[in-house]
Structures are given as C-alpha cells and as structure tokens.
Amino acid sequence: MKPDGRRTGRDETEEERADRMWGELIQEVRVAQTGVQILFGFLLTVVFQQKYAALAHADQVIYIVTVVLGACATGALIGPVSLHRLVSGRRVKPQAVRIASRLTFVGLVLLLLTMTSSLLLILRVATHNGYVPYLVAGVVAWYLVCWYGLPLWVRRRHTRRIDG
Questions:
Q1: What is the CB-side half-sphere exposure of residue 144 using CA atoms within 13 A?
Q2: In whole angstroms, what is the distance from residue 71 CA to residue 63 CA?
Q3: For residue 164, is pLDDT > 50?
Q4: Average pLDDT of the residues of the chain
Q5: How many C-beta atoms lie closer than 10 Å to residue 118's C-beta?
Q6: What residues contact 57, with CB distance under 8 A and at least 6 apart?
Q7: How many Cα neighbours within 13 Å face the side chain of 105?
Q8: Is the predicted pLDDT of residue 97 greater than 50, yes or no?
C-alpha cells in the first residue's frame, strides 16, 4: 500500500497469480489457435487442387515450407493445453505457466512466419510481379509493429518500477 492507502498491486499468492495468469494465457491462445487452425486447414487443401501441379517449382517449395511452418505453429499453440492436462494436479502451475507462455511465444513467431510465407505464395501466384517482396515486407513490418513493437513500447513506457 501507498502512504495514502491506495493499493500498489494485487494481493495474491504465487498459486493465485499462476491461476490468473493461466486463465489469461489460455484466452490469448484461443485467439491464436483459431487463426492458425483455419489457415493450416486451408493450406492442407491447396495440394489437392488441379492448379497445384502447374505451380513453378519455387512456389511448390514455398508451399511446402508454409505447410510445415503451419504445422509447427499449430503444435506450439496447442502445446499449452496438453501441458496443462498432463501436469494438472501436480502442484507445478507456476512453472507450467512459464513454459506455456514461452511455447505460446514460439507459436506466435511460427504463426508470423506461416502468414508471411502464405502471403508470399498467394501474391506470387496471383500477380507474378516483382513488387511482391515489397508488399510482403510491408505486411510483415505491420505484423511486427502490432504484435511486438507496440506491446514492447507499452511495456517499457508504462511499467512501473518497484522500489525496494
């Protein structure tokens, strides 16, 4: 508490904090999981289209890399659910939250790469134009600002130091 009687933070135990953080993490993962699963499902159907065989070799390689990235992103973003299920009741929630958080971060990076390669493939096939890398770079820059730049700026600007 501050001298004027206002609270300076949450009054929670390590276990209560882990429970709260777990709930927040799972809500975040649900959003990312939905997106990656829809994208991955769509990617899996492409190879069965007649036009796939007519793709240039480079585009087929980009497709394969994209599918593998999508599979890895899906695994990383579903991983926290499996982790929770396998360690539930073992009194390791604080540790599980830290590991699940890292796994989610890896999943988001893999999702960024999946979306980037998907966009590259789609724009290459749709336009066959030299400006495609610039469009993709612009979108990736936007993702980086939204997903990492802005959150890191907010964290730096608005995190208060706790003076001991």
A1: 8
A2: 12
A3: no
A4: 91
A5: 22
A6: none
A7: 7
A8: yes
